[in-house]
Amino acid sequence: MPYITIKQQPTYKQMTFEESLFGIDDVSDFIQYNETNTRTYWVEHPRQELMDNTDVPAMIGLLKTFNESKDSLFAQDRVSLYRSFSIAKKTGGLRRIDAPEPELMCALRELKIIFENHMFALYHTTAFAYIRGRSTIDAVKRHQRNKSKWFLKLDFANFFGSTTPAFVLDMLSQIFPFSEIVKYRSGKEQLAKALSLCFLNGGLPQGTPISPFITNVMMIAVDHKISNTLRNFDKNRFVYTRYADDLLISSEYDFDKNAVEKHVIDILAAFNAPFSIKREKTRYGSSAGRNWNLGVMLNSDNQITIGHKRKKQFKAMLCNFMRDRDSENRWSREDIQILNGLISYYRMVEAENIDYIITKCGEKYGNDVRLCIKADLSA
Predict the structure, then answer these.
(1) Residues 6 or more apart from 146 whose CB is under 8 A from it?
(2) pTM for this structure?
(3) Could you tell me if 10 and 36 are in contact, meaning their C-beta atoms sit under 8 angstroms apart?
């Protein structure tokens, strides 16, 4: 009884009576493409047509070849294959990073390609972290489209570190085509061995190219269960998104946060998840207050914004850059890259307001801010 995840086909907007009566010039206007959306199905048995196009023995062969080619890595002490250091968290404190040495890094990238290209491993459509073409903004937009007013934020405790090899193998065993691979004794052994190379001290290390990918694949069943059961829960309709270890659940109406949280905890327990909810980071509130989620605010007017304070700081930063440049006190390349990155990110949130701030700053100093940044980065 596996979960099968596929890329979602284009959806079509409903045609109005007037449009059907008078015709339309461009049918493409009525097709809504989103190449990052997926659709997950829970089935008793995969359809024969799907099985006919799934070469399970070949997949097992790929895993076997991979494992045999990495004998030297399996033989080494795992700790010796990593460089460990800490970086500051935005919310305070330090985050431990375990970066693989070059040989292991290449091996983990190779295994990720095998999973993606030969076993077409995807993610649930409610997952937004570590996925090309998806961002925190896209996650919040799901709640914006629902016109949500009330929000429950949950956070997993030690999401990566507490994820065990046994849990990952168990979850992958429920996800097609891994569900077919593990039906063979050799397939389960080869998959387990390959996955073991991804772990350090019993957990998924943060700093590898495959750890984030594994979390999204292993969470397909959990995400599917939470999302589907919350669509009509306790006489309310909820929207659920997950960004790594951050869960956001919202509704247009006030709801019993304790009941929803217990529901999520019960689902985690049903899947024997080794991680739990971090109680001290649980937050519930409405868009009438300081409704910050994933670094942006969804305000009472249902608009996504970076907030007044950040816009004020951004404006000051732009002016400092232009003023220092006029006085020949040029910024370092690293500082300019940070400024350029902020422009890109803030424009993703509210392009019109950010463009206005940039234009006004340029007019104040008689120069085009973007051209100045480009010139200094090229110097």
Answers:
(1) 237, 239, 250, 251, 252
(2) 0.86
(3) no
Closest to 137 in 3D by CA, of 300, 312, 305, 301: 305
Q: How does strand 3-7 pair with strand 38-42?
A: antiparallel
pLDDT tops 90 at residue 339: yes
Residue in 77, 44, 177 with CA at minimum distance from that of residue 119 = 177
What mean pLDDT do residues 25-54 have? 76
- Phi, then psi, of 292 in degrees rounded to 5: -90, 130
Place of tokens 């030297």: 72
In whole angstroms, what separates CA 62 from the centre of its chain? 27
SS (H, E, C) 53-74: CCCHHHHHHHHHHHHHHCHHHH
228-287 per-position pLDDT tens digit: 999 999 889 999 999 999 999 999 999 999 999 999 999 999 999 999 999 999 999 998
Question: pLDDT tens digit string along 190-210?
Answer: 999 999 999 999 999 999 999
Rg value, the chain, Cα: 24
The CA distance from 110 to 69, in Å, is 11
Cα 223 to the chain's mean position, in Å?
A: 12
- DSSP annotation string for 345-372: HHHHHHHHHHHHHHHHHHHHHTS-HHHH
Q: Tell me the CA end-to-end span of the chain in Å, nearest whole number.
A: 59
φ, ψ (nearest 5 deg) of residue 95: -115, 125
299, 291 Cβ separation under 8 angstroms: yes
Spell out the residues 6+ positions from residue 66 whose beta carbon is closer than 8 angstroms to its own: 110, 111, 114, 194
**Euclidean distance between CA atoms 61 and 92, whole angstroms:** 46
Strand (E) or helix (H) holding 246: strand 246-251
Peptide bond into 177 cis (omega under 30): yes
**How many residues in total does the chain contain?**
379
